[in-house]
Specification:
Elements: H1 3-7, H2 22-33, H3 38-49, H4 60-72, E1 89-94, H5 101-116, E2 120-124, H6 132-143, E3 147-149, H7 156-162, E4 168-172, H8 181-194, E5 198-204, H9 209-219, E6 226-230, H10 242-245, E7 252-256, E8 265-267, H11 270-277
Parallel strand pairs: 1-4, 1-5, 2-3, 2-4, 5-6, 6-7
Antiparallel strand pairs: 7-8
Length: 282
């Protein structure tokens, strides 16, 4: 369907003009190219129009700037993991299979180790995937960090006790199908014992919105505190994530942009995410 055909089918904002200027239509088309939902795109543009003069609405760059500000106000980010002197932070990464949890864990650990001199420790619960323990152990060896393998919930507290000297403990979990409720319950048993300070739900930016929504619903009982998006380098655009990211379920913590450790990870900030949603930044 052409953008002009979609306009007639879209909702309208009370008080906003019932038309799009040529500049607004240009931006609307770019938003569709960035995979923003047409309904959401039209509503956002009309909201922007409520706070702009007619002259401003004739300038596509000004419209984009106001639109970026609008999106920033509706996206919640958490900032980086905070390490405070004298306290320990325990952070777990959970999510579906194949989203890159172990690599993301290594990026976080390397960043804290090299940039802040943080003593990092690892716990892996992923004893199911072939080579998963060895993969994390290799990262641990490179950082000179202790790594504990936990195969049952009753092993969790002793493992954490052995890591009591670490300022940051990162827990790697096995990827779970969102449909496998039994395995999610098992994972929850581990987390109930560990009582991590933060639980980041890791999702791939290349996932369909239907799959991402299903994952968020099925992992919700694990009580995630943050959302972490991986594989931005494999995603054509981030526009389709606007609805989920603006829903306010969990703040966005980090973005990963490739396989390199530790370089390809960024702290999520509103301006960066808004630009990605609008297809303005790669």
């Amino acid at each position: 369907m052409e953008p002009s055909d979609q306009l007639d089918r879209l909702p309208r904002v009370a008080g906003a003009p019932n038309y799009l200027t040529p500049a607004m239509f240009e931006v609307f088309t770019e938003m569709l190219d960035a995979d923003v939902d047409p309904d959401a795109a039209r509503v956002m543009l009309q909201e922007v129009a409520l706070h702009c003069s007619p002259d401003q609405l004739d300038d596509p760059w000004l419209v984009k700037g106001r639109l970026c500000q609008f999106i920033q106000q509706r996206i919640e980010v958490s900032g980086p993991i905070e390490i405070n002197s004298g306290t320990q932070q325990v952070v777990a990464l959970v999510g579906p299979t194949g989203v890159g949890k172990t690599t993301t864990l290594a990026k976080l650990a390397a960043g804290f180790h090299f940039d802040q001199g943080t003593q990092v420790g690892f716990v892996t619960l992923d004893t199911f995937r072939l080579g998963a323990v060895d993969q994390l152990q290799k990262y641990a060896d490179l950082l000179g960090a202790p790594c504990e393998t936990v195969a049952a919930p009753d092993q969790m507290l002793p493992a954490l006790e052995r890591l009591r000297h670490c300022h940051l403990v990162l827990i790697d979990t096995a990827g779970r199908s969102p449909r496998d409720q039994a395995q999610l319950n098992v994972l929850n048993d581990f987390l109930q014992v560990a009582q991590p300070d933060q639980i980041h739900l890791v999702l791939s930016a290349a996932s369909s919105q239907a799959h991402a929504q299903m994952a968020m619903e099925h992992f919700r009982p694990l009580a995630p505190t943050h959302l972490l998006l991986t594989k931005l380098d494999e995603s054509v655009c981030l526009g389709s994530w606007y609805r989920l990211l603006s829903s306010g379920v969990w703040p966005l913590s980090y973005l990963t942009t490739g396989q390199h450790v530790p370089e390809d990870i960024l702290v999520a900030n509103r301006r960066r995410v808004a630009s990605l949603i609008l297809g303005q930044s790669n």
